[in-house]
Write a structure and sequence with these properties.
Two copies of one chain form a homodimer.
Chain A (H helix, E strand, L loop, with lengths): L2 E6 L7 H16 L3 E6 L5 H12 L5 H8 L1 H16 L4 E4 L1 H4 L1 E3 L8 E4 L2 H8 L3 E5 L2 E3 L5 E3 L4 H12 L4 E6 L20 E3 H9 L7 H10 L3 E5 L7 E4 L12 E5 L3 E9 L4 H11 L4 E6 L6 E8 L4 H15 L3 E5 L2 E7 L9 H11 L6 E5 L2 E7 L3 H11 L8
Parallel strand pairs in A: 1-2, 1-9, 2-6, 3-6, 9-11, 10-12
Antiparallel strand pairs in A: 4-5, 7-8, 11-12, 13-18, 14-16, 14-17, 15-16, 18-20, 19-20
């Protein structure tokens, strides 16, 4: 009845048997009367294999060529799915980024989509075709192949859904939806039937792996309804959508954790203007994203400055922090890699007092020391010792009764 | 000094070590002052792997999608070589068929090149780049990926050399040139230093595997000098070039064999007009190329008609011949798959009498029965029992003293 964009990830197209399974799901949507546009990732493991080849070929692979290389993974899956669909008697055509076209900037390996043409796809849909589009890739204005960075196929799918004004963008993955927390960590985790864009965005940023943050940003911007589903079962699913004013707001929708954290502390920093700039400018210049920053209360005009970075950046961040520390007369730089970030997320926080207090109390009762805190309108994050990750997730899940509500 | 097009086949780029070896050869040509355009095949075995996937995906894979799938092999090698070259400090850029553009017709899986644009390549060469082009692939007027059929990378290289007016097109392969016959069959085989386009073309058509016939046709048409060389040694090489009127013409330049032959005989056919058309039209309609045809002398208005086809086509050709035989009142159809075609090739045949006689006598002396004969200006082919293949090659090589001449 409508126009559906379906995206299948790498585990859903890991081999021909699974691609045939995808074909059956696509055909069902088609048979229900929909126009269907399918977006695929590469076979699970293939992108990593190609990246491995690139780094064997050169220490620092040329980025234009790197993108040309790793974009072949999606070209293989889309043409195979189109072959399977044609073989099953359904007209299907695959399209690459440059054929669609999916216009991007020239930031190879992490390009951003500027515009998606829809003419070719609409023409094919009119002919009754199932259209299969390679995710993760685009083309710059000079006809060079670009890729969108890890998880970019989610963004491809949402961008196509937005450009085509699709009725829904279905993201098929190896889990059957978005949960209140990671079911591998806490078996009381409950699947959410709906979640708002903002909550999903905070959850994705705070460590939930189910959707790439950029794809959620884009879905929010263009108000694309995103349905997260399992490619292996018809049960379940979570709808990511606009916040519904009519619905009662959940105080807390989910608990997330992120172990990819390292805490760096610059000790005994003179507390005067310009010190933070001297410390954080070099990090920005080296493209090292800093997540949380806290500064202790000043004592005798000296303070301690702590911040967190991704673990892969910790070596370089440490080096840069040491240089800055020397410059500004700090005593030393300390690194703690045994930390994790625990977050609670919920749009209801805005109107409910005491959520933060409840989080801190809950953790304190278990003897979990909070090392850093950061808050946004709909999220509270605490850095704790890594060994408490699971415990923190479970007690917060219980405290906010996330297993109990029916949404 | 000039503009060189170098083509490397699948065995020359079979893995990263070999691609690095190719890079060193490319750099040497560049350092000698040349502009260098490199054309690559897919890694040895990769195209077959992709074809295998296509036929697992569907019994009769959609051809547009098949081409999109199998063209990924070359995309991997060209981007890897460009990464290696950039890593070694040489600016290099890879281009796919649609980026060049290599315009072809829409005959998927066996497309023909219509035109090759040179603007993008010339611009890159002007910037000092080494240009690396994916062989075997092109793009049709609707921006669909096409492929040129087996061995198509040779044709890509010659077409690029012609369009760019290159000084030479070097074809690097796993043998060090064109031989008077297959050295694996006869160790007296001698490498030719030069060979004319016409002789090369007949040799390629008659079973020599070193160059694809279409690439030789194109080289002849545009007078592109083609140098066949080994990618593993600097020794040797054969120049395929215009016939040099000054040079003494070789009577016979080479002996070839082709085991991919099957002989079909329609027995006791009424000898009246239109019978041959009734027999061969269905074969043409089913895209089955017929190589040699002979018709025995008519006896009592009946005759036997024999023809040869490639072994892969024998089943279907047999079926079609049986239908036709029934229609025209022939007695039966016989198939002989134990045949081979032996050919001698040489531009000197035109002006030397007695070459054919010498061939027939030589075979007769060994008791090798000739089942069919066909001749062109510079080639004589005989169909013999397959078991005599090696013997026929050796005695003809000796009879025409191919091991002795120095060219």
């Amino acid at each position: 009845m409508g126009l559906v964009v379906q995206k299948y990830g790498g585990t859903s197209v890991a081999n021909l048997e699974k691609i045939k399974n995808v074909a059956r799901k696509v055909i069902r949507a088609k048979e229900e009367g929909n126009d269907v546009v399918v977006v695929l990732s590469a076979m699970a493991g293939e992108t990593d294999r190609l990246i491995g080849l690139a780094f064997q070929a050169a220490e620092d692979p040329d980025r234009r060529e790197y993108d040309a290389l790793i974009s072949t993974g999606e070209q293989v899956t889309v043409s195979l799915l189109a072959i399977v669909l044609n073989g099953m008697g359904y007209r299907a055509r695959s399209f690459l980024g440059y054929q669609v076209k999916v216009h991007t900037d020239q930031a190879y390996t992490k390009a951003r989509i500027l515009k998606v043409d829809t003419r070719v796809i609409r023409e094919e849909l009119k002919k009754g075709s199932i259209v299969v589009v390679a995710g993760f890739q685009g083309v710059d204005m000079e006809n060079n192949i670009t890729t969108l960075g890890r998880g970019g196929s989610d963004t491809s799918a949402v961008a196509l859904a937005a450009a085509l004004r699709a009725d829904v963008c279905e993201i098929y993955t190896d889990v059957d939806g978005v949960y209140t927390t990671d079911p591998n960590v806490y078996d009381k985790a409950r699947r959410l039937k709906r979640i708002s864009y903002d909550e999903m965005l905070e959850m994705a940023r705070a460590g939930a792996k189910v959707l790439q943050p950029r794809s959620v940003e884009m879905a929010k911007k263009y108000e694309v309804p995103v349905y997260v589903k399992s490619s292996f079962t018809d049960e379940g699913g979570t709808l990511v959508t606009k916040e519904d004013k009519e619905m009662e707001r959940e105080v807390v929708s989910g608990v997330t954790y992120d172990r990819d954290q390292a805490k760096i502390t610059v000790v005994h920093v003179p507390d005067r203007p310009g010190i933070a700039a001297r410390l954080f400018t070099p990090l920005a210049e080296h493209n090292i994203p800093v997540d949380m920053i806290i500064q202790n209360a000043s004592m005798d005009n000296y303070t301690d400055l702590s911040f967190t970075v991704s673990r892969k950046d910790v070596k370089e961040a440490y080096r840069l922090a040491q240089e800055a520390a020397k410059d500004v007369g700090a005593t030393s730089v300390e690194v703690d890699e045994n930390v994790a970030k625990i977050s609670i997320i919920g749009v209801g926080m805005i109107s409910h007092a005491g959520v933060a207090a409840k989080m801190f109390t809950t953790l304190a009762k278990e003897g979990i020391n909070i090392m850093m805190i950061s808050t946004s309108e709909i999220k509270i994050s605490c850095v704790v010792q890594a060994k408490y990750t699971e415990l923190a997730v479970m007690v917060l899940h219980d405290a906010f009764e996330l297993d109990k509500r029916e949404d």
